[in-house]
Design goal:
It is a single chain. 34% of the residues lie in helices and 21% in strands. The chain is of the alpha/beta class. The chain has one domain: Glutaredoxin (3-Layer(aba) Sandwich), CATH 3.40.30. The strands form 3 sheets. It has a 5-stranded mixed sheet. Strands 1-2 form a two-stranded antiparallel ribbon. A two-stranded antiparallel sheet has the order 3-4. The chain is globular and about 50 Å long. The termini are far apart.
Length: 182
């Protein structure tokens, strides 16, 4: 169990990372061939599926890596204390009516998380990553961070920062349809 001071330091670090992430919302990263491998901000072109590697091995209360295999899913790293996470909540609520969304609560307090999830909860399943180890394993630098994971358990899309309605309609839903063979 981490001391309250360590938890506060982690919370401040994650908050700062969120603020930095929000400031770069329009950045786009490409591989050496010019293919987008990471998307941040509104989509302007058709999204492309790229294999960014397997989901890291993990087991936390409520979720494990094996839960992310079998069918495509949207996985969202979030926290009850994260302001940008609250901004994307209406988008996730709407998306949850169409696709499975799994959440990982990163560096959160259990009681705060319970209160947060008692409001509208878009998640089919939620893992509790109190010490942030899963977020680190996924390479999360700020919250929220979203991933689309294919049926084989490979990450095929990543988005840093809050999801917008355009992200849902222009990227997530088309990619999920493609992965589901629709």
């Amino acid at each position: 169990m981490k001391s309250p001071l360590v938890k506060r330091i982690l919370a401040v670090a994650m908050t700062l990372a969120c603020m930095i992430g929000v400031t770069i919302l329009t950045a786009k990263f490409e591989d050496p061939n010019g293919n987008p491998v990471l998307h941040i901000g509104p989509f302007r072109e058709k999204p492309v599926v790229h294999d960014l590697g397997p989901v890291p091995a993990f087991t936390v209360e409520g979720l494990k890596d094996a839960d992310l295999k079998g069918k495509p899913r949207l996985v969202v790293m979030f926290a009850s204390w994260c302001g940008p996470c609250r901004i994307e909540e209406p988008v996730l609520i709407k998306l949850s009516k169409s696709i499975p969304i799994y959440g990982v609560a990163v560096t959160d307090e259990e009681k705060s998380l319970e209160r947060y999830l008692k409001r509208e909860n878009p998640y089919s399943k939620v893992g509790f990553d109190g010490d942030g180890a899963v977020g680190i394993a996924f390479g999360v630098e700020g919250l929220p961070t979203s991933f689309i994971v294919n049926a084989d358990g490979h990450i095929v899309w990543r988005h840093d920062g809050p999801l917008s309605p355009d992200d849902a309609t222009d990227a997530i839903l088309p990619l999920m349809d493609e992965l589901n063979g629709s």
